[in-house]
Design a protein that fits this description.
By secondary structure, the protein is an all-alpha fold. Strand 4 and strand 5 form a beta hairpin.
Length: 376
């Protein structure tokens, strides 16, 4: 019985190895953004998206489809090779996102679905780490930016939890690929900079860059409640940790864990556009916690704090927004000042969501810049 069991296990191992070898040999042969079979089916079923209609022509992009037991997605003619995926991502990020004839939430849903299809093709073809980081960075920028742009939209139009799920999937995949590259290079000093320079100089139509420093920074700021990004930062090479944007992100995360929310808001002014967008989605929570701390620190029935000062401390876009937040949490707010009373602060209400998009008017958050800039 034992020998038969060993034989059976060995056969399973051989079969699994053979399947992996076959999977590694899969190379896409679809040289258009959408396979012909899907184009014919969707046109027949009248399932062409409005964003796939460009003037008198149609530019269909492969949609995401869940794998099922009776379907095989590992078919070469249905898979797009790297350069086609690269062009598809650039088209979605730099052209489709500029469409203004439909609401931003519709653009987001469409591009999100098509980017998932790109990641599906990447996974099935087991693309190299260098190829993956090239394709993943624009996706990360997209989810960070639209997480900021759509944060005031109702839940029926935009799901922030789902967006963060996709964002973290892309970020962790990106960083995992860089870990593989580091191991393959055998050295983390110099080789990383050389690789980043090489990736940045690839033939992108509008120089969408591959920037590890920015991605490491976003990983920290998108996970302010998690210590794992901080542990990862501490294990990075010294030359990376000295980079201004990455070092600033680390300081913000540490200040947040220590409850020094005013320092978080001060450091926020020194961030680049994307890291600012990432932190902005967390700002309402920071403001809530800061107001709770102040309710204990400045607890008094006779003393008050000017709303103008409070708005500057906690980065409210206006005194009116600060007034609304204070009233939301049960604090006594007059026309120009707020009185803190720890007994009045309401911890049972939802986090107040103010209009944070009024904050940084001096940041260039245009589509052309947000997906192509390199942090200085």
């Amino acid at each position: 019985m034992s020998s038969y069991f060993d034989y059976h296990c060995k056969q399973l191992e051989i079969s699994a190895r053979r399947d992996i070898e076959q999977a590694e040999c899969i190379k896409g042969t679809c040289y258009t953004m959408c396979p012909d079979e899907e184009v014919k089916l969707r046109e027949k079923m009248n399932m062409v998206h409005v964003l796939e209609v460009v003037g008198p022509t149609r530019k269909l992009v492969k949609s995401y489809s869940r794998s099922a037991a009776d379907t095989n997605i590992a078919v070469p003619k249905l898979l797009r090779p790297y350069m086609v995926l690269h062009d598809t991502v650039q088209y979605l990020i730099l052209e489709v996102t500029k469409r203004t004839d439909v609401p931003s939430s519709v653009v987001y849903d469409f591009v999100t679905d098509r980017l998932r299809a790109v990641r599906q093709d990447m996974t099935v073809q087991r693309m190299t780490s260098e190829q993956c980081v090239n394709l993943l960075e624009p996706m990360i920028r997209f989810h960070v930016y639209y997480g900021y742009k759509l944060q005031d939209y109702p839940l029926k139009d935009y799901d922030p939890v789902l967006n963060k799920k996709y964002l973290l999937e892309c970020l962790k995949w990106f960083l995992s690929c860089y870990n593989t590259i580091d191991q393959r290079q055998g050295s983390q000093n110099g080789a990383i900079d050389k690789l980043s320079e090489t990736l940045s100089n690839l033939n992108f139509r509008e120089n969408v860059s591959c920037n590890r420093i920015l991605m490491e920074s976003l990983y920290i700021l998108c996970n302010l409640e998690d210590v794992h990004p901080l542990l990862r930062y501490l294990n990075l090479p010294k030359d990376l940790k000295r980079e201004p944007i990455l070092n600033k992100s680390y300081k913000i995360a540490v200040a947040n864990l220590k409850g020094n929310y005013l320092r978080v808001c001060r450091l926020m002014d020194e961030l680049c556009p994307l890291t600012y967008c990432a932190l902005c989605t967390y700002l309402p929570t920071i403001q809530r916690r800061a107001l709770l701390v102040m309710s204990h620190a400045y607890n008094s029935k006779r003393l008050s704090v000017p709303l103008e000062l409070l708005a500057r401390w906690l980065r409210f876009p206006s005194e009116r927004e600060a007034w609304h937040a204070c009233k939301h949490y049960g604090l006594t707010a007059e026309s120009n000042a707020v009185t803190f009373d720890k007994g009045q602060f309401r911890t049972d209400v939802l986090t107040h969501q103010g209009n944070t998009q009024l904050l940084k008017t001096n940041l260039d958050l245009s589509i052309d810049n947000i997906f192509t800039y390199k942090p200085s």
